[in-house]
């Protein structure tokens, strides 16, 4: 257990190099090959100032670490887990089975079946163990959903989400204006 604990107790680093002791969101993925997609979730959390940790945790290659991660997440203060995986994408579902925390699943597009394999295996959870699955490779939406979940208890965060949506609306309207100029 100590060994696994040391794997999780590294200092938390956000994209801008800042550190925080208590991550609220755990971003995990089955392989470092998922990182180019999953780092988009980290970028969104940085925008909202939400602390997170990033770990490679594989359902198949590191099953003990996965169990430990899921079981210790509540104790460590994690509130939402974002889990990305490709192919036989069991990671989010297995993690959800070992924690009461909300788990957002990101299906990663693999080289063989275009991500349909990942999205279907993530969606088809058995009754009783839910995960919230976003679109293929859409780690950005996973982070936005995590922010919305946290925002239920953090009014400041909810205000930031309102602003984010207003900014997006303004941006789209401006683009529309340019088209008719
Ligand atoms: C899954 O297998 C990972 O989530 C990844 O998307 C996929 C391929 O992994 P690598 O062979 O690139 O390590 O477990």
Automatic annotation (TrEMBL):
Segment of the intact protein contained = 453 to 633 of 643
Protein's UniProt name: phosphoribosylaminoimidazole carboxylase
Provide the coiled-coil residue spans.
none
Which protein family is it in? Answer: In the C-terminal section; belongs to the AIR carboxylase family. Class I subfamily.
Q: Which domain of life is it from?
A: Eukaryota
């Amino acid at each position: 257990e100590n060994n696994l604990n040391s794997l999780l107790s590294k200092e938390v680093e956000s994209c801008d190099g800042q550190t925080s002791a208590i991550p609220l969101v755990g971003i995990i993925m089955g392989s470092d090959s998922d990182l180019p997609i999953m780092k988009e979730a980290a970028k969104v959390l940085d925008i909202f100032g939400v602390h997170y940790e990033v770990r490679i945790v594989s359902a198949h290659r590191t099953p003990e670490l996965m169990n430990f991660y899921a079981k210790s997440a509540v104790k460590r203060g994690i509130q939402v887990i974002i889990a990305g995986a490709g192919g036989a994408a069991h990671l989010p579902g297995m993690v959800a089975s070992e924690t009461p925390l909300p788990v957002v699943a990101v299906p990663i597009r693999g080289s063989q079946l275009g991500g349909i394999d990942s999205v279907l295996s993530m969606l088809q959870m058995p009754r009783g163990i839910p995960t919230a699955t976003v679109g293929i490779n859409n780690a950005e939406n996973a982070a936005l959903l995590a922010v919305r979940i946290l925002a239920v208890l953090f009014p400041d965060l909810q205000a930031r989400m309102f602003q984010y949506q207003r900014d997006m609306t303004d941006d789209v309207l401006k683009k529309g204006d340019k088209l008719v100029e």
